[in-house]
Give the backbone structure.
Amino acid sequence: MSKGVIKILLSALLPILGACASGPTARQTFFDEEFENVAYGNFLVIGVAGTYNSRAQFERKVASTLRAEGVSATPYHTVVSGNEPISRDAVLDVVNSNEFDAVLVTRVLAQNADVSMEGGSTSTQASTIGGRPVNFFRYNYEELNDPGSLNIAMTVTLASELFSAAEEKMIWAIETSNSNASNVGVLIDATAERIVQKLAGDGLVSR
């Protein structure tokens, strides 16, 4: 694909730097038919990410969006008082101590960043911080020579899985994809809202 075509495509996706290029989309990957008529009212929300701040922001947004639906929801990091490791035994202890009836876990499946330059001869290199794919949406950008207008498009795909606390089994799962131009906060918030919207639409949130 020529540079001209790439610029045209990126320009279509990124009319305003920092604005959301497209809303998040959700794809159902699993739904246990035995639980299609079961709704939950007390969620433990867990985000799995390489950075604590991104994980905490995501957990808070999902929990607050669930509470807006009229149910109880708690970010995992607030229950364990900070950046504690996520393990099966630790989660079970939290669930049993707080009487959660459902656990929602969201983890990163894939992410990428597309960079284009307009009005300059500079090339830009993007590299993940720490070289780990689970570093939530975090990139270092090294400008070479004199930069022109820099367009950055980030895409992230998340897997969200809902577990029944009583049965200790996964009952529902989706994959959510979202594209955004460099505004991490907007990307996280929009994706969290889409996940809760799908949960509620599938009848898993008590009314």
